[in-house]
Write a structure and sequence with these properties.
By secondary structure, the chain is an all-alpha fold. The chain is built from 17 helices and no strands. It starts with 6 loop residues before the first helix and ends with a helix.
């Protein structure tokens, strides 16, 4: 088919066809707002106008992409500005038709020069902006201002800081580069942020079990504290909280494996898949049993975890801990070998294990992969012991004893498997 139609004719037909579709949607958009406007306010935005503008832009681009097209774009911009001024006097402040007119004029060059994916994305965005006006406005009204700041912070993390970092090793740290550290920051922050958004906005009043699932994607330790405090606040009410605490820890294994794979440590992920998979499924079985025992009781709603994982101080703290743990691990392995690393891993489990685990996997220390994988298991084991303590301390209730008991048992299972591998 491409051989039968000359390229320029094919591009022209594609340009006109897409402009016609955009014109239909723009006209429908203008008609939806017509009830609040006088007829003079609807002077621009017909299907014919959009189609002819795209044909004009295509023709001027073919003549010359510099002078004719640029002059035509400037003249059109002035004309649309005057039209917008007229519509403002008539009570129409919508700038979208003016923007669509400029985009329609530029559609031909995009068809001729841009990749097909870019063209498709542009047309889809235009059609969504015109057709989903009400839904977009509802989303804009409901979108909190602080989340816009949060997204800006993510762009700072990913688009500003990351490109400025050199792909060079950090002094005295084997094979750990600045970009590796910040890649870990971005990956763990991104996954945690998705869990945070789901918990706060998609399921703002999540039931107890769902709180465990979503909280575990963000931070199983934080979820344990939230759920334990909920039990303390309702001392006489049966609760799904013990089952939810165990589910949060089960999700920790999924999150760790996902991040390890995303950071390119496939070999370590394959080795950890067996113990983590076993602990994940047995944790689900235990939580299902506890939930079955509590069935028939209301599943209370719990507020989302308040801390935002994309706060810049949190990101910088993660990067700092990454480097600190890498330096400590390098020192310990040089002086004490694998045995020292295992003692360090158990101690680290009583803090944030993510930066330690990723620095351990990224570095080339004087121990083998077996010792590294065992250290990851030991760190996750002691972290479970910490959560068992938190569950009892913050709840002050024996109802959390089953969860604390299973967390302690999972710690022993992890330690046993780690010692078996040594």
């Amino acid at each position: 088919m491409n051989g039968l139609i000359p390229p320029l004719l094919s591009g022209f037909l594609g340009t006109v066809g897409l402009a016609f579709i955009i014109g239909l949607e723009l006209h429908a958009y203008r008609r939806r707002d017509a009830g609040n406007l006088v007829p003079e306010a609807l002077s621009f935005g017909t299907t014919r106008t959009i189609t002819l503008l795209s044909a004009l832009g295509f023709a001027l681009w073919i003549i010359s992409p510099i002078t004719p097209f640029c002059v035509g774009f400037a003249v059109l911009g002035v004309a649309l500005l005057l039209d917008y001024r007229k519509r403002l006097k008539a009570g129409d402040s919508a700038l979208l038709p003016t923007v669509i007119g400029l985009l329609a004029f530029s559609l031909g060059p995009v068809v001729l020069t841009a990749p097909l994916a870019v063209l498709a994305a542009l047309v889809v965005i235009i059609l969504l902006a015109l057709g989903e006006q009400a839904q977009i406005r509802k989303l804009s009204d409901a979108f909190p201002a602080e989340e816009g700041v949060t997204l800006a912070k993510f762009f700072i993390l990913a688009g500003l800081i990351y490109p400025l970092l050199p792909d060079a090793s950090i002094p005295y740290l084997a094979s750990i580069t600045y970009t590796k550290v910040w890649t870990a920051v971005l990956v763990i922050s991104g996954i945690s942020y998705l869990g945070y958004l789901a918990h706060r906005y998609v399921f703002p009043r999540a039931g107890t079990l769902l709180t465990g699932v979503l909280g575990g994607l963000y931070s199983s330790t934080a979820a344990t504290v939230v759920l334990a405090r909920a039990v303390r606040g309702e001392p006489d009410a049966p609760s799904f909280a013990p089952a939810a605490v165990i589910i949060a820890t089960a999700m920790m294994y999924v999150r760790l494996l996902a991040v390890i794979i995303l950071l390119g440590h496939t070999d370590a992920a394959l080795v950890l898949a067996l113990p983590f998979g076993f602990l994940f499924f047995t944790s689900l079985a235990v939580s299902a049993f506890l939930a079955w025992r509590a069935k028939g009781t209301p599943s209370a709603a719990h507020a989302a975890i308040a801390a935002n994982p994309l706060d810049l101080p949190v990101a910088f703290l993660f990067a700092f801990l990454f480097v600190v743990f890498a330096a400590i691990t390098n020192f310990v392995t040089q002086r004490f070998g694998a045995s020292g690393l295992h003692v360090l891993s158990f101690a680290v489990g009583f803090s944030d294990i993510d930066p330690f685990v990723f620095s351990l996997l990224d570095g080339k220390f004087q121990v083998g992969q077996t010792a590294v994988v065992s250290a990851v298991l030991i760190a996750s084991a002691s972290n479970n012991l910490l959560k068992a303590i938190y569950a009892m301390v913050f709840s002050r209730s024996l109802r959390m004893a089953p969860a604390a008991g299973w967390l302690t048992a999972s710690m022993l299972l992890s330690l046993g498997y780690a010692l078996f591998r040594l």
